[in-house]
Amino acid sequence: MSAPPKKAFPLRLDPALYAAIERCAAADLRSVNAQVECLLREALGRRGVKLAEPVRAKRGRPPKPEGEKK
């Protein structure tokens, strides 16, 4: 099952705000985009807005078919 496509839109930020998000993203080993999404989810959660858990892409190797030798 693949993740549903994400909505893309332009976002204008103050350069100082972007730099702060960039630093936080690096500290959390995330992209700036993933960091913004995480911060928005946290902020909405604090306001009591319930969101479904995001569909995460599967990572790693696919399982070997049954009966296949190593």
TrEMBL record:
InterPro entries per UniProt: Arc_rbn_hlx_hlx (IPR013321), Ribbon_hlx_hlx (IPR010985)
Entry protein name: Toxin-antitoxin system HicB family antitoxin
SUPFAM superfamilies xrefs: Ribbon-helix-helix
Gene3D superfamilies in the cross-refs: Met repressor-like
One GO BP: regulation of DNA-templated transcription
Superkingdom classification of source: Bacteria
Source lineage: Bacteria, Pseudomonadati, Pseudomonadota, Alphaproteobacteria, Sphingomonadales
Region of interest called Disordered, as start-end residue ranges on this chain: 51-70
